[in-house]
Amino acid sequence: MLHILFLFALVLAPASHAADFCVAKLKGAGGVAGYACRDPAKVTAADFVFKGIVTSGNTTNIINAAVTPVFVQQFPALNGLGLSTARLDLAPGGVIPLHTHPAANEILVVTSGVIKAGFITSSSNKVYIATVTKGQVMVFPQGLLHFQLNAGKTAASAVVTFNSPEPGLQILDFALFANDFPTELVSGTTFLDSAIVKKLKGVLGGTN
Fold first, then answer.
1. Is 106 annotated to bind ligand?
2. Which residues are recorded as binding Mn(2+) (predicted)?
3. Is the overall model pTM greater than 0.90, yes or no?
């Protein structure tokens, strides 16, 4: 009888557990552990809905493509949940250049059009390339160089999901040619002719 009463006491005792969510207070400083939490009493259902990817992004740019991020900075409800998403829009000829996400794996779901995508392994430099159509899914392992390009004659779009609220991003072309990385060093470390390096710097806004 005492055992039964003890079990009832455990069941009826007030639960003590971590909060269910931590909607970010973005005005404070963020870090590896995330942002400070807003007061749960002031959080509403609207805080858990993001409408910023309803419409396509602006693809009138040098890559004929747009990425609309839905990271913790845009969607504070993601804070501490270990995930984020983004919308990709690629006009005909559009490309998301070779890039990496150092902090996350990525899953791509094509929502319209035809997208050719691929990644390069770090162990053997083997290349995996696939043509992905509406409703199909492709995965890109964390930290590997990968790309997406429009392989059709009409606009293409996709939704990508990451297992981090801040996956990080480094675009190879921009890292090499869109800054003040000296031309002679870029040429010397990539085996590209300096004239080509200067031309690419001119296109992407780099100097030096």
1. yes
2. 99, 101, 106, 146
3. no
